[in-house]
Amino acid sequence: MKLPDKLPTHVTLIMDGNGRWAKARGQERIYGHFEGVQSVRAVTEACVEWGIPYVSFYAFSEENWNRPQAEVMGLMELMMKTMRAELPTFMNNGVRFVVLGNRARLSDALNATIDDMMAQTAANARLTLILFMSYSGQWDIRQAAARMAREGGTDIGAYLVTAGFPDPDLLIRTSGEKRISNYMLWQTAYTEFVFTDTLWPDFRKEEFLAALNEFASRDRRFGKVK
Ligand code: IPE
Ligand code: IPE
Ligand code: MG
């Protein structure tokens, strides 16, 4: 498959199906999360290579805090380790790393790592990689509305944690689920959706390319007549 001419400026991915992927192999759910990291790498690499300037991943929702403690802890540990390990790659490839979400719920150690990574990669300009952690769309709108009321603003978009970043052009969700699961509710107003049955750990470059081709074939009208 060829790379289409028309690429999204911002592609976002709901990485779903890690648990089912592991279960199908008779393994613990965390094993699926572990393998899912390789898919994040593959997609990030492709974005750098193909010139997509913004990629974001839904890594952990506010609702995911309600999972068994062991899984939550395992995920947090995995994210911290992975982040640190990727720093040299981010520097070599011009990747700016950003975490958005309800950071007050993350541990001090994790927040310190995130702050450090964001500071070190702040000037990188080839690709912006956003990780949504402890994020939910309703939480985002709620915190934006509260701040806006305090400060007397009028543009809610300017108060969302995504302020300053372009809205996603393309949202890909893996694992066959066809729902938004409290992700970027405001920002996806005109986003194109691509759903695939592939489980996240199996989602690699070829699948990503197929989704980009599907995106390129869509006719985006934004409510207008063409
Ligand atoms: C996505 O995979 C990862 C997170 C939500 C953190 P799941 O863990 O939701 O895997 P399934 O959907 O149970 O298979
Ligand atoms: C959505 O996946 C959240 C992330 C991928 C981080 P879930 O597995 O939590 O979504 P539901 O529960 O199937 O809607
Ligand atoms: Mg899931």
What descriptive keywords fit this protein?
226 residues; alpha/beta; 6-stranded parallel β-sheet; 6 helices; binds 3-methylbut-3-enyl trihydrogen diphosphate; binds magnesium ion
Explain the overall architecture.
The structure is a single chain. The two termini are 29 Å apart. This protein has a six-stranded parallel β-sheet, with helices on both faces. Helix 4 links the parallel strand 3 (95-100) and strand 4. The chain has helices at 18-23, 29-50, 69-93, 108-121, 137-151, 205-217, and strands spanning 10-14, 54-61, 95-100, 127-135, 170-173, 192-195. Helix 2 packs parallel to helix 3 and helix 3 (69-93) packs parallel to helix 4 (108-121). The protein has one domain: Decaprenyl diphosphate synthase-like (Undecaprenyl pyrophosphate synthetase, 3-Layer(aba) Sandwich). With 226 residues, it is of the alpha/beta class. The longest helix is centred in the middle third of the chain and has 25 residues, at 69-93. It contains six helices and six strands, in the order E-H-H-E-H-E-H-E-H-E-E-H. Residues 15-20, 60, 64, 75, 175, 200 line the site of one 3-methylbut-3-enyl trihydrogen diphosphate.
